[in-house]
Protein backbone atom coordinates (compact mmCIF):
# COMPACT_ATOMS: atom_id res chain seq x y z
CA UNK A 1 0.00 0.00 0.00
CA UNK A 2 0.99 3.65 -0.31
CA UNK A 3 1.68 5.58 2.87
CA UNK A 4 3.45 8.72 4.01
CA UNK A 5 6.94 7.94 5.31
CA UNK A 6 8.92 10.28 7.58
CA UNK A 7 12.59 10.00 6.60
CA UNK A 8 13.92 12.02 9.56
CA UNK A 9 12.88 14.58 12.16
CA UNK A 10 12.37 17.98 10.55
CA UNK A 11 10.26 20.13 8.27
CA UNK A 12 7.67 19.08 5.69
CA UNK A 13 10.45 18.08 3.29
CA UNK A 14 11.13 14.93 5.38
CA UNK A 15 7.77 13.48 4.28
CA UNK A 16 7.36 11.33 1.19
CA UNK A 17 4.85 8.81 -0.13
CA UNK A 18 6.24 5.28 -0.50
CA UNK A 19 5.18 1.65 -0.72
CA UNK A 20 4.91 -0.17 2.61
CA UNK A 21 3.36 -3.43 3.79
CA UNK A 22 -0.42 -3.50 4.19
CA UNK A 23 -1.34 -4.27 7.84
CA UNK A 24 -3.67 -7.09 8.85
CA UNK A 25 -6.32 -6.81 11.59
CA UNK A 26 -5.76 -8.76 14.77
CA UNK A 27 -8.35 -9.98 17.25
CA UNK A 28 -10.85 -7.21 17.95
CA UNK A 29 -9.51 -5.01 15.14
CA UNK A 30 -10.82 -3.82 11.79
CA UNK A 31 -8.92 -2.86 8.66
CA UNK A 32 -10.12 0.43 7.17
CA UNK A 33 -9.60 1.31 3.51
CA UNK A 34 -8.87 5.00 3.94
CA UNK A 35 -10.76 7.61 1.93
CA UNK A 36 -9.28 10.60 3.75
CA UNK A 37 -7.22 11.47 6.80
CA UNK A 38 -7.41 14.51 9.06
CA UNK A 39 -4.23 16.56 9.53
CA UNK A 40 -3.69 17.80 13.09
CA UNK A 41 -1.07 19.89 14.85
CA UNK A 42 -0.01 16.77 16.74
CA UNK A 43 1.14 15.42 13.36
CA UNK A 44 3.42 18.45 12.94
CA UNK A 45 4.95 17.76 16.35
CA UNK A 46 5.49 14.09 15.53
CA UNK A 47 7.10 15.02 12.20
CA UNK A 48 9.62 17.17 14.12
CA UNK A 49 10.35 14.33 16.56
CA UNK A 50 8.53 15.81 19.57
CA UNK A 51 5.45 13.57 19.82
CA UNK A 52 6.30 9.89 19.27
CA UNK A 53 3.44 7.38 19.09
CA UNK A 54 2.68 4.96 21.92
CA UNK A 55 4.77 1.79 22.01
CA UNK A 56 3.72 -0.70 19.34
CA UNK A 57 1.77 1.85 17.26
CA UNK A 58 2.62 2.62 13.63
CA UNK A 59 5.19 5.38 13.13
CA UNK A 60 3.08 6.68 10.23
CA UNK A 61 1.42 10.02 10.99
CA UNK A 62 -2.34 10.42 11.24
CA UNK A 63 -4.78 10.35 14.17
CA UNK A 64 -8.13 10.16 12.34
CA UNK A 65 -9.50 8.76 9.10
CA UNK A 66 -12.68 8.09 7.21
CA UNK A 67 -13.24 5.23 4.78
CA UNK A 68 -14.79 1.79 4.50
CA UNK A 69 -14.28 -1.43 6.41
CA UNK A 70 -12.00 -3.66 4.33
CA UNK A 71 -11.66 -6.63 6.73
CA UNK A 72 -12.57 -7.58 10.30
CA UNK A 73 -10.53 -9.46 12.86
CA UNK A 74 -11.64 -12.36 15.03
CA UNK A 75 -14.34 -11.49 17.52
CA UNK A 76 -15.61 -8.39 15.69
CA UNK A 77 -19.38 -8.60 15.20
CA UNK A 78 -20.35 -4.92 14.97
CA UNK A 79 -18.80 -4.22 11.56
CA UNK A 80 -19.10 -5.73 8.09
CA UNK A 81 -16.93 -5.34 5.01
CA UNK A 82 -18.00 -2.27 3.04
CA UNK A 83 -19.46 -0.31 5.96
CA UNK A 84 -18.61 3.42 5.91
CA UNK A 85 -16.69 4.42 9.01
CA UNK A 86 -14.63 7.06 10.79
CA UNK A 87 -11.88 6.05 13.18
CA UNK A 88 -9.92 7.59 16.05
CA UNK A 89 -6.31 6.42 15.83
CA UNK A 90 -3.12 6.41 17.86
CA UNK A 91 -1.26 6.66 14.54
CA UNK A 92 -1.11 5.29 11.00
CA UNK A 93 -3.75 7.39 9.24
CA UNK A 94 -1.70 8.81 6.34
CA UNK A 95 -2.00 5.58 4.36
CA UNK A 96 -4.30 3.63 2.07
CA UNK A 97 -5.14 1.16 4.87
CA UNK A 98 -5.01 1.31 8.66
CA UNK A 99 -5.75 -1.17 11.45
CA UNK A 100 -7.74 0.13 14.42
CA UNK A 101 -9.49 -1.43 17.43
CA UNK A 102 -13.17 -1.89 16.55
CA UNK A 103 -14.31 0.20 19.53
CA UNK A 104 -12.53 3.25 18.15
CA UNK A 105 -14.59 3.15 14.96
CA UNK A 106 -18.03 4.61 14.44
CA UNK A 107 -20.33 5.49 11.55
CA UNK A 108 -19.94 9.00 10.10
CA UNK A 109 -22.57 11.58 11.04
CA UNK A 110 -25.69 11.38 8.91
CA UNK A 111 -25.62 13.80 5.99
CA UNK A 112 -21.86 14.49 6.13
CA UNK A 113 -19.63 13.85 3.11
CA UNK A 114 -17.26 10.96 3.83
CA UNK A 115 -14.15 13.00 3.04
CA UNK A 116 -15.21 15.83 5.36
CA UNK A 117 -16.00 13.25 8.05
CA UNK A 118 -12.27 12.46 8.23
CA UNK A 119 -11.71 15.72 10.08
CA UNK A 120 -14.40 15.34 12.74
CA UNK A 121 -13.64 12.50 15.12
CA UNK A 122 -10.33 13.76 16.58
CA UNK A 123 -11.61 17.25 17.39
CA UNK A 124 -14.97 15.99 18.64
CA UNK A 125 -13.33 13.40 20.89
CA UNK A 126 -10.78 15.95 22.13
CA UNK A 127 -13.37 18.58 22.99
CA UNK A 128 -15.98 16.29 24.53
CA UNK A 129 -13.53 14.25 26.61
CA UNK A 130 -11.83 17.37 27.96
CA UNK A 131 -15.04 19.22 28.68
CA UNK A 132 -16.18 16.14 30.59
CA UNK A 133 -12.81 16.01 32.36
CA UNK A 134 -13.11 19.68 33.35
CA UNK A 135 -16.71 19.21 34.45
CA UNK A 136 -18.07 21.93 32.15
CA UNK A 137 -21.66 22.61 33.18
CA UNK A 138 -24.42 24.02 31.03
CA UNK A 139 -24.43 27.80 31.24
CA UNK A 140 -20.83 28.24 32.43
CA UNK A 141 -18.23 30.45 30.73
CA UNK A 142 -15.57 28.82 28.54
CA UNK A 143 -12.39 30.30 27.07
CA UNK A 144 -10.88 28.40 24.14
CA UNK A 145 -7.68 29.53 22.49
CA UNK A 146 -7.24 29.32 18.72
CA UNK A 147 -10.90 29.76 17.86
CA UNK A 148 -10.57 29.18 14.12
CA UNK A 149 -8.61 25.95 14.36
CA UNK A 150 -10.17 22.52 14.29
CA UNK A 151 -10.48 22.14 18.07
CA UNK A 152 -11.31 25.80 18.70
CA UNK A 153 -14.04 26.10 16.10
CA UNK A 154 -15.64 22.89 17.35
CA UNK A 155 -15.38 23.84 21.02
CA UNK A 156 -17.09 27.19 20.45
CA UNK A 157 -20.12 25.53 18.91
CA UNK A 158 -20.25 22.60 21.34
CA UNK A 159 -20.23 24.93 24.34
CA UNK A 160 -22.83 27.23 22.77
CA UNK A 161 -25.06 24.20 22.18
CA UNK A 162 -24.87 23.66 25.95
CA UNK A 163 -25.91 27.22 26.73
CA UNK A 164 -22.45 28.43 27.71
CA UNK A 165 -20.94 31.87 27.26
CA UNK A 166 -17.87 31.43 25.04
CA UNK A 167 -14.73 33.55 24.81
CA UNK A 168 -11.98 32.85 22.32
CA UNK A 169 -8.71 34.21 20.96
CA UNK A 170 -7.48 34.56 17.38
CA UNK A 171 -4.82 36.53 15.54
CA UNK A 172 -6.56 38.71 12.96
CA UNK A 173 -9.75 40.68 12.38
CA UNK A 174 -10.83 38.14 9.75
CA UNK A 175 -10.35 35.22 12.13
CA UNK A 176 -12.12 37.05 14.96
CA UNK A 177 -15.06 37.55 12.60
CA UNK A 178 -15.10 33.80 11.93
CA UNK A 179 -15.16 33.15 15.68
CA UNK A 180 -18.14 35.44 16.15
CA UNK A 181 -19.92 33.78 13.23
CA UNK A 182 -19.40 30.43 14.94
CA UNK A 183 -21.11 31.80 18.05
CA UNK A 184 -18.32 33.24 20.23
CA UNK A 185 -19.68 35.90 22.59
CA UNK A 186 -16.22 37.37 23.28
CA UNK A 187 -13.54 37.39 20.56
CA UNK A 188 -10.09 38.67 21.57
CA UNK A 189 -6.97 39.41 19.52
CA UNK A 190 -4.14 37.52 21.20
CA UNK A 191 -1.67 40.19 20.06
CA UNK A 192 -3.26 42.58 22.57
CA UNK A 193 -3.87 42.44 26.32
CA UNK A 194 -6.46 39.71 26.07
CA UNK A 195 -6.35 38.98 29.81
CA UNK A 196 -7.46 42.51 30.71
CA UNK A 197 -10.05 42.55 27.92
CA UNK A 198 -11.45 39.22 29.09
CA UNK A 199 -11.70 40.42 32.68
CA UNK A 200 -13.55 43.52 31.48
CA UNK A 201 -15.90 41.47 29.30
CA UNK A 202 -16.75 39.17 32.26
CA UNK A 203 -17.17 42.07 34.73
CA UNK A 204 -14.00 41.03 36.52
CA UNK A 205 -15.19 37.49 37.21
CA UNK A 206 -13.10 35.51 34.75
CA UNK A 207 -14.05 32.18 33.18
CA UNK A 208 -15.04 28.79 34.56
CA UNK A 209 -13.13 26.58 32.12
CA UNK A 210 -10.19 27.19 29.76
CA UNK A 211 -9.29 24.80 26.94
CA UNK A 212 -5.67 25.64 26.17
CA UNK A 213 -3.49 24.64 23.21
CA UNK A 214 -0.53 26.88 24.11
CA UNK A 215 0.94 25.39 27.27
CA UNK A 216 3.80 27.23 28.99
CA UNK A 217 3.43 30.60 27.25
CA UNK A 218 -0.15 31.05 28.49
CA UNK A 219 0.12 29.32 31.88
CA UNK A 220 0.26 32.52 33.95
CA UNK A 221 -2.26 34.50 31.87
CA UNK A 222 -4.65 31.54 31.89
CA UNK A 223 -4.57 31.17 35.69
CA UNK A 224 -5.11 34.93 36.01
CA UNK A 225 -8.21 34.56 33.81
CA UNK A 226 -9.90 31.86 35.91
CA UNK A 227 -12.93 32.55 38.04
CA UNK A 228 -13.17 31.13 41.54
CA UNK A 229 -13.41 27.36 41.18
CA UNK A 230 -12.14 27.62 37.60
CA UNK A 231 -10.51 24.74 35.72
CA UNK A 232 -7.66 25.01 33.19
CA UNK A 233 -7.18 22.06 30.84
CA UNK A 234 -3.95 22.06 28.81
CA UNK A 235 -4.21 19.96 25.64
CA UNK A 236 -1.40 21.43 23.54
CA UNK A 237 2.13 22.78 23.93
CA UNK A 238 2.48 25.18 21.02
CA UNK A 239 3.88 27.79 23.43
CA UNK A 240 6.40 25.55 25.17
CA UNK A 241 6.55 22.84 27.83
CA UNK A 242 7.95 24.62 30.92
CA UNK A 243 6.26 27.56 32.61
CA UNK A 244 6.15 29.26 35.99
CA UNK A 245 3.02 28.78 38.07
CA UNK A 246 1.95 31.22 40.78
CA UNK A 247 0.49 28.80 43.30
CA UNK A 248 -1.01 31.63 45.33
CA UNK A 249 -3.02 32.77 42.33
CA UNK A 250 -4.29 29.20 42.00
CA UNK A 251 -4.97 28.86 45.73
CA UNK A 252 -6.95 32.08 46.09
CA UNK A 253 -9.21 30.99 43.23
CA UNK A 254 -9.68 27.39 44.46
CA UNK A 255 -8.72 26.61 40.88
CA UNK A 256 -7.42 23.51 39.10
CA UNK A 257 -4.77 23.03 36.43
CA UNK A 258 -4.72 19.75 34.55
CA UNK A 259 -3.32 18.39 31.29
CA UNK A 260 -4.52 15.52 29.12
CA UNK A 261 -3.56 13.60 26.00
CA UNK A 262 -6.16 11.69 24.03
CA UNK A 263 -3.57 9.69 22.09
CA UNK A 264 -2.13 7.86 25.07
CA UNK A 265 -5.38 6.84 26.75
CA UNK A 266 -6.15 3.11 27.00
CA UNK A 267 -8.15 1.55 24.18
CA UNK A 268 -11.14 1.02 26.48
CA UNK A 269 -11.29 4.73 27.34
CA UNK A 270 -11.02 5.72 23.70
CA UNK A 271 -13.88 3.38 22.84
CA UNK A 272 -16.03 5.01 25.52
CA UNK A 273 -15.19 8.48 24.16
CA UNK A 274 -15.99 7.47 20.58
CA UNK A 275 -19.34 6.04 21.70
CA UNK A 276 -20.12 9.26 23.58
CA UNK A 277 -19.26 11.35 20.51
CA UNK A 278 -21.52 9.26 18.30
CA UNK A 279 -24.39 9.54 20.77
CA UNK A 280 -24.13 13.18 21.82
CA UNK A 281 -22.24 15.05 19.09
CA UNK A 282 -23.11 13.43 15.76
CA UNK A 283 -26.78 14.53 16.04
CA UNK A 284 -25.60 18.13 16.59
CA UNK A 285 -23.56 17.92 13.39
CA UNK A 286 -26.34 16.28 11.40
CA UNK A 287 -28.84 19.01 12.32
CA UNK A 288 -26.12 21.68 11.74
CA UNK A 289 -26.10 22.93 15.32
CA UNK A 290 -22.36 22.32 14.92
CA UNK A 291 -20.97 23.05 11.46
CA UNK A 292 -17.41 22.82 10.17
CA UNK A 293 -15.58 26.15 10.17
CA UNK A 294 -14.16 25.21 6.78
CA UNK A 295 -11.68 22.74 5.36
CA UNK A 296 -8.81 22.63 2.92
CA UNK A 297 -8.16 19.42 1.01
CA UNK A 298 -4.86 18.11 -0.32
CA UNK A 299 -4.05 14.90 -2.18
CA UNK A 300 -1.94 12.35 -0.30
CA UNK A 301 0.96 13.09 -2.65
CA UNK A 302 0.77 16.75 -1.57
CA UNK A 303 1.27 15.97 2.12
CA UNK A 304 4.17 18.42 2.36
CA UNK A 305 1.95 21.24 1.13
CA UNK A 306 -0.74 20.21 3.63
CA UNK A 307 1.73 20.52 6.52
CA UNK A 308 3.07 23.84 5.21
CA UNK A 309 -0.48 25.20 5.02
CA UNK A 310 -1.32 24.18 8.59
CA UNK A 311 1.94 25.64 9.88
CA UNK A 312 1.50 28.91 8.01
CA UNK A 313 -1.14 30.26 10.37
CA UNK A 314 -3.47 30.98 7.46
CA UNK A 315 -5.63 27.91 7.98
CA UNK A 316 -9.25 28.06 9.10
CA UNK A 317 -10.97 24.83 10.11
CA UNK A 318 -9.57 21.43 9.16
CA UNK A 319 -6.93 20.21 6.73
CA UNK A 320 -7.85 16.97 4.97
CA UNK A 321 -5.60 14.54 3.08
CA UNK A 322 -7.58 12.78 0.35
CA UNK A 323 -6.20 9.27 0.01
Automatic annotation (TrEMBL):
Q: Extract the SMART domains matched here.
A: PKS_ER
- Is Oxidoreductase set as a keyword in this record? yes
Domain Enoyl reductase (ER), chain residue ranges per copy: 10-321
Q: Which UniProt keywords are given for this protein, alphabetically ordered?
A: NADP, Oxidoreductase
The answer to whether UniProt assigns keyword Methyltransferase to this entry is: no
What InterPro entries does the database record attribute to this sequence? ADH-like_C, ADH-like_N, ER, GroES-like_sf, NAD(P)-bd_dom_sf, Quinone_OxRdtase_PIG3
Per its record, how is this protein called by name? Answer: NAD(P)H-quinone oxidoreductase
Species whose genome carries this gene: Propioniciclava soli
Q: What does UniProt list as this organism's lineage?
A: Bacteria, Bacillati, Actinomycetota, Actinomycetes, Propionibacteriales
Amino acid sequence: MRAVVRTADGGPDVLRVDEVDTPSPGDGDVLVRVAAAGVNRADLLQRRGHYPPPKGVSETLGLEVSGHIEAVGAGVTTWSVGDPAVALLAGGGYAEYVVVPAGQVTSPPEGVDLLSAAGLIEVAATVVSNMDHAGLRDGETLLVHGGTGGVGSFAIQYAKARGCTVATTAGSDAKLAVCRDLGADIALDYHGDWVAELKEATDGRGVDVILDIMGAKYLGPNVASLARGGRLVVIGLQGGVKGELNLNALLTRNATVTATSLRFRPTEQKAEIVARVAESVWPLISDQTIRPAGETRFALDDVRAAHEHLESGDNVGKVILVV
